[in-house]
Design a protein that fits this description.
The protein is of the alpha/beta class. Helices cover 24% and strands 14% of the residues. The protein folds into three domains: 2-27 and 530-591, Immunoglobulin-like (Sandwich); 35-135 and 219-515, Glycosidases (TIM Barrel, Alpha-Beta Barrel); 139-206, Oligo-1,6-glucosidase, domain 2 (Alpha-Beta Complex), CATH 3.90.400. The two termini are 34 Å apart.
């Protein structure tokens, strides 16, 4: 290191003032605005949250019974992954009846009770709506198969004749996001529901996901009318909003033209978008078509008929962020998941860029920014951030894959979560991250249920490792997940020390960090706060520091600790401080 470098470095490794100069890039919001602008929303994945009936699969009464955990944590709303009637070919993202609860998860009465209990505790409920495709067990699809080619029943889906002399080639070259072709020929269907009648039927149907998830044709007026009714069905039952699955996918380019690019879930592309973010977007004729926005304008009007600021949340893997912001223009949806943030590397400069780009893009349309680090489709961030080396974003981790460094991963995950919760906007938590849960990385392959595992020809471990049943009580069988001790996937040994009862009783635990952070976030109104980058670290490669209202949030990515002023009042820290300094991979919140 040269002399000049060392001077530059040492001046960058001390926070010199508790009155730092900042460059404000996002203004403070009016505190009377809608709840979703600043909400911390907790994702419940029902089959893995808590089981009440002992079958080893979580259910809705299990969620109701554990609501007080969420109240103690301090969240504002719960997003429930799908609980509708479904053959569970994609863990419920294959819906057979949009107006009923699957018996696996309970009944409509159980759902009503959950909404009532949540509301009585001040928690809101967001349901997950899956409009891009149905299950092959949905009445419409069964009717379409029975009615045959050319029938009005087929017009609600994307059935087409094949190419080639005998129609033996798929209608275009699109690939399924789970691997393999995006088309299945009716007479080659391998679903358990395939019927003898199918044999002579040689049309093909489109499915961007599994063969059991046929895509709807959103040009069809009955499809549009049906989903507006479905929205009303759940709004009438009291839901506070919807998370819209694959919100960028419902409308396809006319003529379904060939496209040679790759499609993937959150990992998306590897080419940087124009704002520098990578990995959160997909393009091509099946995604982000102009026509999807008409659907959301219509839905916005449906929600507007109801009191209580009901909200629509887009799951759209779209880049750049300015393109994503189009989903949350004032007459469309209200929030969109920020996958650009989730996929950004653990580097000060990259995170500074994505935070700035996110706030600018959403401010442009008057929407709140959202922040997210984990969900049911990606490797839990406590493990993802412990992966070093080339493949930083695989789809799942299997026994024979490079394993994460658990200690490094948790340390970084805590620092990342504390940084995220200090940002203005709305934040999403995935169940179990508040316990510091890692991914299950050595699951037996024969237990895997994610269709991505077999559809990718057993090359992608898939998403089961982030969907393992939660640990509640460390000394009970199945760690208290179910009264019988059964769990639909086995829990790794490491889950014992992560159990909620252990975490609650341990000073400095991940749970206590989240709980304290959410309390400070609320009392300092950080969700509606401003963001100003601290100028002395503005170009730093190792320190990210910003001020939100009267709280300074500082993360050190580098090896040299960052010294704080002697009178600094540290509100929360993601890990122990060294001699008043902030060590590597640690975030602190300091009172200004
Ligand atoms: C959901 C996935 C699901 C897919 C198909 C997504 O983006 O989050 O879990 O497999 O949509 O519905």
């Amino acid at each position: 290191m040269t002399h000049i470098d060392s001077i530059a470095d040492s001046s960058a490794l001390e926070l010199t003032s508790l009155n730092p100069t900042t460059t404000v890039i996002h203004p403070k919001s009016d505190s009377a605005r809608e709840w979703w602008r600043s909400a911390v929303i907790y994702q419940v994945y029902p089959r893995s949250f808590a089981d009440s009936d002992g079958d080893g699969i979580g259910d809705i009464p299990g969620v109701t019974a554990r609501l007080d955990h969420l109240v103690e944590l301090g969240i504002d709303a719960v997003w429930l992954s799908p609980f509708y009637r479904s053959p569970q070919a994609d863990a419920g993202y294959d819906v057979a009846d949009y107006r009923d609860v699957d018996p696996l998860f309970g009944t409509l009465a159980d759902f009503d009770e959950l909404v009532a209990q949540a509301h009585s505790r001040g928690l809101r409920i967001i349901a997950d709506l899956v409009p891009n495709h149905t299950s092959d067990d949905h009445e419409w699809f069964k009717a379409a198969l029975a009615a045959g080619p050319g029938s009005p029943e087929r017009a609600r889906y994307l059935f087409r004749e094949g190419k080639g002399e005998n129609g033996e080639l798929p209608p275009n070259n699109w690939k399924s996001i789970f691997g393999g072709p995006a088309w299945t020929r009716v007479n080659e269907r391998t679903s358990p529901l395939a019927a003898a009648d199918d044999v002579s039927d040689d049309q093909w149907y489109l499915h961007m996901f599994d063969t059991r998830q046929p895509d709807l044709d959103w040009e069809h007026p009955e499809v549009r009318a049906e989903f507006e009714e479905v929205l009303r069905f759940w709004l009438d039952r009291g839901v506070d909003g919807f998370r819209i699955d694959v919100a960028h996918g419902m409308v396809k380019a006319p003529g379904l033209p060939d496209w040679d690019g790759d499609v993937a879930m959150v990992e998306g592309t590897t080419e940087p978008a124009e704002d520098g973010s990578t990995g959160a977007g997909n393009s091509g004729p099946m995604f982000d078509q102009e026509g999807v926005h008409d659907i959301y304008r219509a839905w916005n009007m449906v929600l507007a008929d109801y009191a209580g600021d009901r909200a629509l949340v887009a799951e759209a893997w779209v880049e750049p962020l300015s393109r994503l912001a189009r989903y949350v223009r004032s007459d469309e949806m209200h929030q969109a998941f920020n996958f650009s943030y989730l996929t950004t590397a653990w580097e000060a400069a990259a995170l500074r860029n994505v935070v700035t780009a996110s706030l600018h893009a959403s401010d442009e349309v008057g929407a709140p920014t959202t922040w997210v680090l984990s969900n049911h489709d990606v490797i839990r961030h406590a493990s993802r951030m412990g992966l070093t080396g080339a493949a930083v974003r695989p789809n799942g981790i299997g026994k024979n894959d490079p394993q994460p460094d658990a200690e490094l991963g948790l340390r970084r995950a805590r620092a990342a979560s504390l940084q995220m919760l200090g940002l203005p906007g709305s934040a999403y938590l995935y169940q179990g991250e508040e316990l510091g849960l890692p991914e299950h990385t050595d699951l037996d392959d024969d237990l895997r249920q994610d269709p991505a595992w077999w559809r990718s020809g057993y090359t992608e471990a898939g998403r089961d490792g982030c969907r393992v049943p939660l640990p509640w009580e460390s000394d009970k069988p199945g760690l208290g997940f179910s009264p019988t001790g059964k769990t639909w996937l086995p829990q790794p040994d490491s889950y014992k020390e992560c159990a909620a009862d252990v975490q609650r009783a341990t000073e400095g635990s991940t749970f206590s960090m989240y709980r304290d952070a959410l309390a400070v976030r609320k009392s300092h109104d950080l969700g509606l706060g401003s963001l100003g980058w601290v100028e002395e670290f503005a170009g730093s490669a190792t320190v990210l520091a910003f001020v939100n209202n009267d709280v300074l949030v500082l993360t050190n990515f580098g090896e040299t600790p960052v010294a704080l002023p002697a009178d600094a009042q540290v509100l929360i820290s993601s890990g122990p401080l060294t001699d008043g300094g902030v060590p590597q991979d640690t975030t602190v919140w300091v009172q200004l």
